[in-house]
Design goal:
The structure is a homodimer of 361-residue chains.
Chain A lengths: L1 H4 L3 E5 L3 H13 L3 E5 L4 H7 L1 E5 L3 E6 L3 E3 L2 H5 L7 E4 L13 H15 L5 E6 L5 H8 L7 E14 L4 E14 L5 H14 L6 E4 L3 H12 L2 H8 L3 H6 L6 H20 L7 H12 L5 H8 L5 H15 L4 H20 L3 E4 L4 E4 L3
GO cellular component, one term (chains A, B): cytoplasm
Protein name (chains A, B): LANO_0E01860g1_1
InterPro entries (chains A, B): 6-PGluconate_DH-like_C_sf, 6PGD_dom2, KPA_reductase, KPR-Related, KPR_N
C-alpha cells in the first residue's frame, strides 16, 4: 500500500530539444518524480537550470527537474528505482557501441533489478523507426528483468540552442503504446504513462493501440522523403518541385518507395491505406520542411538510417518483398553515413592502401 | 588546286582546360590555322597569351593561337571559313538556351554556308554523353549546310587555374570518329582531323571506327559512378568502400546500373562485353578520382546530366528496357540539378506559393 501511494519515478535519458520538453511535460503534470540524464550541459544545468521558450508552456527560467544526473551510471548508483526509463536519444545501431540503446539503459535496468526484482521497469522508447524494441529484447531477458517496452511516437518541433537553452516551436503530440499489443501489463503501463505525461490544454498525448501500424505508417514518409532530402540537402518541397515536369520526384521516387513500404508492411500483416501516401505528399506540398536525416547530415551527425530504412529492408528480404527504390536509397545513404563516420573519426580511409578500417567493427 | 594547298582552318569553341590544350595540340602540330573563342579571358589572352604547364608539351609562356575571338559571332564575321569547328564546351541541353550546342555553333555554320556553300563544315564534338549529335541534326539540315559530324572522346586531366593559365596533368588521349559509321565522307574527315591533331610522342590520337560502341561503353562508368559521387559528394573509391561489407555500392548500385546500360545498348544493337564493367570497377579501386559531375556539383555548375543519364533513359523507354537503378539515380540527380539552377537564378522557388518558375522554359 505504501508503494501505491508513492509517486512513480521517471528517468529521461537524452537531454536534447526533445528530451528536455519531454522531461518538463512529466514534471509539470506533477504526478511523478522526474530525473534527467544531462551529459554535455551538466555543469550549466546544475548551476543555472534550463531556460525554455515553449509554445506549449510559455517562457520558463532556471528550471530544474527533481533529479539531474551526468550519466545513466550515476543514476544507477543513486539508490533510486526508476519505474519509467524514457529514452529520447537518437537510435543509431551502426554508431559507436556506447550509444546503442541497450548499452544506454543497461546500468539503470541492472540497478532496478538489484533494488527490486519484483517491480516492473518500463522502458519508453520515444524514437523513430522500426523494430527498435527487438535490439533491447536481444540483450535483456524480458521476464527475468521484469521489463515492459513501450513505443513513443512523437511530433514536436523542439531544438536545443546552446547550453541549457531549449526552444519548442511545434506542439508536443505523443502517441504511447505497447510494442506487443497482446501484452496486457504493457497496455496498463502505457495508460499510466499517458496520465503522467498529460498536460491538458498544453500537450496532446494519447494511447496508441496499434504501434506496428503507426510505425509502418510513419515510414511512408521517413523511409522515402527523409533520405531524398538528405541526398539533395534540400527541403522536401523543393525536392518535390525540382523534378521533371515537377512530378518525377513524386512519381518516380516517392510513390514507388511508399508502395514498397506498403508491400513490406503487408507482408507482416500490417495494412496501410494507400490514401495515407496522399496525406504525406500533401504535407510536403504545403509545409516547407527539412526532415531530421537532412538536418543530421548537414550538421555532420550520424543519421537514424538503420532503424528507418535498414530494418524495413531486412523485413523485405526476409519476406521476399521486392523493394528496388528503397534498396538504392538505402545504399546511397550508407555512403553518406560512411562520410559522417569518417568525419567523426569512426571510420578511416587509407589513401595509400585505398581501403577503410573501422573503429566500429 | 589553290584550295588544296592552303592549310585547313580550325575554330575551337570553349576555352576551358580541355579547349586550350586541344587548341595547342592543333597549333603545335603545325598543319592547320587554329583560332580559339575565348569568352571570359579575352582581354588577358590577347594581351599576355596563355601560360601552360603541360605533361604533354612542357612549360609554355605567352602563347597565342593564330586567331582569338571573343565570341563565335565575332569569328563568324571575320571573313574566315572554318573547316573544323571543334566544340569543347560542356553539353547541357537543360541549361540556358544560349549555351545549347546548336546555338553555339550557329553563327559559324551560317557564315561558312554563306562564304562557300559547297565546302564541308566539319563539327567535332569533344563532349561526353549519348545522342549529342542528334540535337544538331534537329536544328540544321545536314545536306544543305554540307555538315559532317565527328565524335571526339577525350581523356585528359586539364584544368584552367585563373585567367590564361592552364595546367594539364594527364596525357591527352583523343578518339575521333564519325557519328554515322556509314558516312564515308565523315570517315575521311575524321582521318584528316587525326593527322591535324597528332603530336607524336606527346599526345595520343586515334580513329574510332565504332563511336556508338565507345560512347555506350563510357556510359558504364559515367551514367552510374558519376551520379553516385555527385550525390555523396565523395570520390569514387570512398563511395565504393563506404558501403555495407564494402560491397553494396558495387553490387547494389553500380553493377545493376551498369547491367542496365548494357541492356539498353543491346536494344540499340550495341554489344558491350560485361568484362568492361570490371575494367571500370578496378579503376575505382585503384585510382582516387572525383568524376566531373561531382566536381561540377561542388562548384555549383550545371552537370551534363541529360546527355549522360537522360538520353540513355530515353532510349530505354523507347525500346522498353527496364532501368530502375538508372531511373532513380536520374531523378535524384534532377533534384541536384534543380538546386544548381536555383543558385544560378535559372529557377525560382516561391516560398509563399510553394512552387517554382523557370527562366528556362
Amino acid at each position: 500500500m505504501a508503494q501505491e501511494s508513492r509517486k512513480p519515478s521517471c528517468l529521461v535519458i537524452g537531454a536534447g530539444g526533445v528530451g528536455v520538453i519531454t522531461t518538463y511535460s512529466l514534471f509539470n503534470a506533477g504526478l511523478s518524480e522526474v530525473s534527467l540524464v544531462v551529459r554535455s550541459d551538466y555543469e550549466h544545468v546544475t548551476k543555472h537550470g534550463y531556460s525554455i521558450d515553449s509554445c506549449d508552456y510559455g517562457t520558463i527560467a532556471n528550471w530544474r527537474p527533481h533529479g539531474v544526473f551526468k550519466t545513466a551510471e550515476d543514476a544507477s548508483t543513486s539508490g533510486h528505482f526508476f519505474d519509467y526509463v524514457v529514452v529520447t536519444v537518437k537510435n543509431i545501431p551502426d554508431g559507436p557501441k556506447s550509444g546503442a540503446v541497450h548499452e544506454i539503459v543497461r546500468p539503470v535496468v541492472e540497478s532496478n533489478h538489484q533494488l527490486d526484482a519484483s517491480r516492473i521497469t518500463c522502458i519508453v522508447l520515444i524514437q523513430n523507426g522500426l523494430d527498435i524494441e527487438k535490439e533491447l529484447l536481444e540483450h535483456f531477458d524480458q521476464h527475468s528483468y521484469n521489463l515492459v517496452l513501450l513505443s513513443g511516437v512523437q511530433l514536436i518541433g523542439s531544438t536545443k540552442n546552446g547550453p541549457g537553452n531549449v526552444v519548442q516551436k511545434g506542439q508536443d503530440r505523443l502517441s504511447v503504446g505497447p510494442f506487443d499489443a497482446t501484452d496486457l501489463t504493457a497496455t496498463e503501463c502505457a495508460k499510466k504513462f499517458v496520465k503522467l505525461y498529460s498536460n491538458e490544454g498544453h500537450n496532446i498525448v494519447e494511447i496508441e493501440s496499434d504501434v506496428k501500424h503507426s510505425r509502418w505508417r510513419k515510414l511512408l514518409y521517413n523511409a522515402v522523403v527523409n533520405p531524398t532530402t538528405a541526398l539533395a540537402q534540400l527541403d522536401a518541397t523543393r525536392c518535390l518541385k525540382f523534378s521533371k515536369d515537377k512530378t518525377s520526384t513524386e512519381n518516380c521516387i516517392w510513390r514507388p518507395g511508399m508502395y514498397e513500404i506498403i508491400a513490406i508492411a503487408a507482408s507482416e500483416g500490417v495494412i496501410i491505406d494507400p490514401k495515407e501516401m496522399d496525406f504525406f505528399l500533401d504535407f510536403t506540398r504545403r509545409i516547407l520542411y527539412k526532415p531530421s536525416m537532412c538536418i543530421d547530415y548537414e550538421k555532420g551527425q550520424l543519421m537514424e538510417l538503420e532503424v528507418i530504412l535498414g530494418n524495413p529492408l531486412k523485413v523485405a528480404n526476409r519476406n521476399g518483398v521486392p523493394a528496388p527504390t528503397l534498396t538504392i536509397l538505402y545504399h546511397l545513404m550508407t555512403i553518406l553515413q560512411g562520410k559522417i563516420k569518417e568525419s567523426k573519426g569512426l571510420l578511416h580511409f587509407d589513401e595509400e592502401k585505398m581501403d577503410t578500417t573501422s573503429d566500429l567493427e
